Amino acid sequence: MFNGLLLEIAITRSQISKRDLAKKLGISEQGLYNKLNGISEFKASEIRTLTDELSLSAQEREDIFFAKG
Question: Which of 21, 28, 36, 46 is spaced 20 to 30 Å from 56 by Cα?
Fold first, then answer.
């Protein structure tokens, strides 16, 4: 289960704008907002990019994208 709140916290902490993050992911800003709001899902390649760009630890990545419950 995706945890959007934890991802929002990680984005804020990184100080990368959502516009820049969308560019790095190769998607539109609207596409990023759709993913953040659970309308569409993140692809594996996007999760890898977010992990790198946001400097997520393995545990943070698991908690954000693969949380159980």
Answer: 28
